[in-house]
Design a protein that fits this description.
By secondary structure, this protein is mainly α. The protein is about 60% helix and about 0% strand.
Length: about 170
């Protein structure tokens, strides 16, 4: 029998994969759902076992970036399912969404960054908007994070708190 917390964690992963992979076109055409499910399960296991436990204590920007890159590198072995390894934009969205959800449930401390997407870039007034599914460099990612960090500091908020207050899905 599944307990409440395990149920919520499974729902978090459903939302995380949905949010990170929407509009991304990562899968090879005609890939069977069974293969996609296997990939998602392996990726979830990797993130839970190798990455999330690092966030039981605060991590630096550098450590967080290493983890984003590590997720992208991990996906390189799934050539039979993916068109290419997932890029920095999709990796950051995947990790940052999971961290945000775990934080909001009280399962992990506050994350160092937030999920970068179109909605939050519009709140930053970032022009031109960067399509997060095509975000392929850490420099572009960190420029968005640093722009948001400036706004967060002006409001005496951390990045995660600022994003939580400003992210509105409509």
């Amino acid at each position: 029998m599944i307990n409440k917390q395990d149920f919520l964690i499974e729902e978090i992963w459903l939302l995380t994969f949905s949010g990170a992979f929407q509009h991304s076109g990562i899968y090879i055409a005609n890939t069977k759902e069974k293969e996609r499910t296997y990939f998602r399960n392996m990726l979830k296991g990797y993130i839970e076992q190798m990455v999330l436990k690092k966030y039981k204590q605060p991590v630096s920007d550098e450590e967080h970036i290493e983890n984003i890159i590590g997720i992208s590198n991990y996906t390189a072995s799934f050539k039979d399912v993916l068109k290419a390894p997932i890029n920095i934009g999709i990796s950051q969205k995947l990790l940052n969404l999971a961290l945000k959800y775990y934080w909001c449930l009280g399962l992990l401390p506050e994350p160092p960054h937030f999920p970068v997407d179109r909605i939050i870039q519009q709140k930053i007034y970032k022009q031109p908007l960067v399509n997060w599914t095509q975000l392929d460099t850490i420099d572009m990612y960190m420029q968005i994070i640093n722009d948001a960090r400036t706004l967060a500091k002006q409001n005496n908020l951390s990045l995660a708190q600022w994003e939580l207050e400003n992210f509105v899905r409509r």
